[in-house]
Design brief:
249 residues; alpha/beta; six-stranded mixed sheet; 7 helices; binds adenosine-5'-diphosphate; binds magnesium ion
């Protein structure tokens, strides 16, 4: 079963073709790092994967279903770039994580005792329980991202999609977030797709790397990716043991 399947996906903003026949599949249980230059279309790809945008042509499937027919949105947690930028309201850490739980329960069901326990466990899992009463906007960027991961945990999402969670965060906090994502992937089998600027760093944690540049320039194991001479600089070369169905631009 695939978490995401993109087949010949085309996407454009007015006068700007962003994605040109993009193909790749993310298997359930994968930990995929998405890289590529600024403006390459990484955020656009994530938005297509979580149904916020629709392709002009080609197909996006989520958990085997065409995106237009997909209904199980609670199985997917999406953390956008700068998720808290607009969040000027004074929510506490625990309240933000509770929102994830409410999303999973659906409208009209109250938070019960067992839900509070899930929220507590989620906060402990990311090491933010002691901060539960803090106002989210006052935390450091790294701490805020850990809260966003706790929110996804509380929602019990099978698939976690994150857009540059480490932007503007120092290297120690960045490593802590990557380590947390790896733990989530290995111990809870959460499928993870994460966009990162930090090519070297993320490739040490993720199992697969996809390099976006209109199409998929590289898609394969992170081990192969890290060998010298292969992407990102050496565009022409096909990785010898590429996995998945990435086609090449
Ligand atoms: N809402 C939008 N309207 C018009 N153009 C956009 C919009 N969002 C992104 N773009 C353009 O689409 C291209 C891809 O953007 P994006 O997916 O954000 O790239 P990345 O995340 O890799 O930096 C860029 O040229 C960007 O300027
Ligand atoms: Mg982006």
């Amino acid at each position: 079963m695939y978490a995401f399947e993109l087949e010949d996906v085309m996407f454009a903003y007015p006068n700007n073709i962003v994605l040109d026949r993009l193909n790749f599949k993310v298997e359930l249980g994968d930990f995929v790092a998405m890289i590529g230059p600024n403006g390459a279309g990484k955020s656009t790809v994530l938005k297509l994967c979580v149904g916020l945008l629709r392709p002009i042509s080609g197909q996006v499937k989520i958990l085997g279903e065409p995106v237009a027919a997909f209904r199980n949105w609670q199985r997917i947690a999406y953390v956008s770039q700068n998720p808290l930028r607009e969040r000027s309201f004074p929510a506490t850490v625990a309240e933000v994580v509770a929102m994830g739980r409410v999303a999973a329960l659906g409208m009209g069901r109250d938070i019960r005792k067992e839900d509070r326990e899930i929220i507590r466990q989620s906060l402990e899992w990311v090491g933010m329980y002691e901060h539960r009463r803090d106002i989210i906007g006052r935390l450091s960027g790294g701490q805020q991202q850990r809260v966003m991961i706790a929110r996804a945990l509380a929602a019990q999402a099978a698939i976690l999609v994150l857009d540059e969670p480490t932007a503007g965060i120092d290297s120690a906090a960045t490593d802590a977030i990557y380590a947390l994502l790896r733990k989530l992937n290995s111990s809870l089998e959460t499928t993870i797709v994460v966009v990162s600027h930090d090519v070297e760093g993320i490739a040490q944690y993720a199992g697969k790397v996809i390099k976006i540049n209109k199409g998929a320039e590289y898609y394969g194991s992170s081990e192969t990716f890290r060998k010298p001479g292969i992407c990102p600089k050496n565009k022409g070369r096909e990785p010898s043991d590429a996995v998945g169905d990435g086609s090449h631009a």
